[in-house]
Structure formats: structure tokens, C-alpha cells
Amino acid sequence: MADLLNPLTQKELQERAPSIFTTEPSTKVTDKYSFIPTVQVLEDLDKLGWEPYQASQRKSRKATDSLFTKHLIRFRNKSIGQLGDSLPEVVLTNSHDGRNSFSLHAGLFRLVCSNGLVIADQTFEQVKIKHQWYNMTEIQKVVNSMIEKIPSIVTNVNKMDQTLLNEEQQVIFGQQAMLTRWPKGNEKLDVEDLLSATRVSDKGDSIWKIYNIVQEKLVKGGLVFNNDKAKFQKLRPIVNIDQQININKNLWSLAESYV
Question: Cys bridge to 204: 209, 213, 220, 244, which one at CB 3.0-4.6 A?
């Protein structure tokens, strides 16, 4: 976890998501495409005190496509205080192939499990910035609006921490949570295993505790279970950027619905 508590260097960003530093758009885009390199957003956010702590990009079949593919960066600002066991983040997604606009999301990095959470659109509406509209003023306005939402996020976290679920409600939550990753369900996975705390500090009956246990397992994987051939199988982590964000947001929205 120590590495996740220090901002990434430019070399580390380059290794994890080289498409961030692309200096020209894909040849597949039209002349109408207005190209704004992510590295410029990186520099602008740095001026506002936001530093990158995590970065990844979508896997590409062709090496040339990897220079333009969708990427994700999680930023934190040292001047913004901790929310309980979590740190507020700004999550940026973008690509240079003309398929995506800049998107900014509010996020949380939970110190206990080293796992970034993304807040649902109901709590903070996702902001998309079209390339031709990009400027420093727009970025500052969006980031400031996220900071203004922090008190309401704190309120929601506190409510979740104070809302207790009985065993039946916990099982129902676990079953609903599984649908965020497997829309048709997963009969091989025992919901009790999904609800089982990995750490002593995670044990408890509050929706906040249960949500974090389930979120970590569904996104980071690692849970071992029996498949239909009576062999042990390990749940794989979610590496797809869009799927990561969608699962995170849907889980947050589900947890909030129990308050």
C-alpha cells in the first residue's frame, strides 16, 4: 500500500499508461477532431494541486493502438482532508482515438484495502468535457464543484456507517451486488463467501462495512470458490476501465439505497 500513498513519477505514469503522453491523435479520427493531449490536463491539474496516484490503460491488440487507447488516472490533493478511512479523489478517463470525451468522476481511495472507490452519479454527476471545449477554466470549475460536494459525500458515508443490516438484508445486498458484475447472476459463487470479511477491521453489520467488503472482492478479485467441476477457482480482478467504473458506481448507488 505504501506505493499507493505516494504520487506517481512521470516515468511510472509512462510505464503504466503510455497513451497519456501521446502527442498526436490517432490517424483514424477525422479532421474535425480537436486533439487535447491528456498530459496537458495532467499539467493543469497539477497547477491546482492534484497529483496522480494510480494510472492504467485499456489493453490493445495492436501496439500502435495502445498509444491512443482509453486510459484512467486517479488524482489526489494533499490539501484536502481525509474522510474517515478514505481520501477524496478526482478520476479522469480519456482517449486519443476519438471514441471518448474527457470524463471526470468523484472518487474515494480507501486506506484499509488500498482500493479506489468511485462514487455513483447520483452523488456526483459524471462530467464530460468535449475536446473542443477544453480549457484551464473549465477544468478548475469542474474540480471546484467536486470539492463542494465533499460535505455531502461525508454525510452519505456517515449514514451508511450508521445503518445496520440484519443477516437477511446482508444476503439480499450480496445477491444484488453480484448483479453489478454478472447481470445474469453467478450460481457458482456463494454469497456468504462474498460477504465474509477479509480483515478483522472490516467486520461489522453496517452497510458501509458490508459494501466495502463486497466492493473489494468484486473489483479486485482474489476470492477462491468452487466451480461446477468441483475445482477451486479464483475470482479475477476487473481490469477493464469502463467495467471498473460501472461496477463501482452501481455498487455505491446500491449501498446508498439501503440508507
Answer: 209
pTM above 0.85, yes or no: no
Residues, the chain:
259
Q: Which of 53, 67, 64 lies closest to 95, judged by CA?
A: 67
Give the span between the Cα atoms of 48 and 138, in whole angstroms: 12
Reported as a single tens digit per residue, the pLDDT across 92-136 is 888 877 666 678 888 888 887 777 888 877 777 677 776 666 778
C-alpha to C-alpha distance for 119 and 77, rounded to whole angstroms: 17
Classify residue 146 as exposed, middle or buried by CB count within 10 Å of its CB (0-12, 13-18, 19+): buried
**What is the DSSP annotation of 167-212?**
HHHHHHHHHHHHHHH-TT--TTS-HHHHHS-SSGGG-SSBHHHHHH
Nearest partner of 214 among 246, 175, 163, 253, judged by Cα = 175
Strand (E) positions, the chain?
50-57, 71-77, 86-94, 102-110, 115-118, 127-129, 224-226, 232-234
The CA distance from 177 to 181, in Å, is 8
End-to-end CA distance of the chain: 30
In Å, how far from its chain's centre is CA 145?
19
Q: Which residues contact 24 (CB under 8 A, 6 or more apart)?
A: 35, 96
CA distance linking residue 70 with residue 20, whole number of Å: 9
Q: Measured between alpha carbons, how far is 112 from 154 in angstroms, rounded to an integer?
A: 17
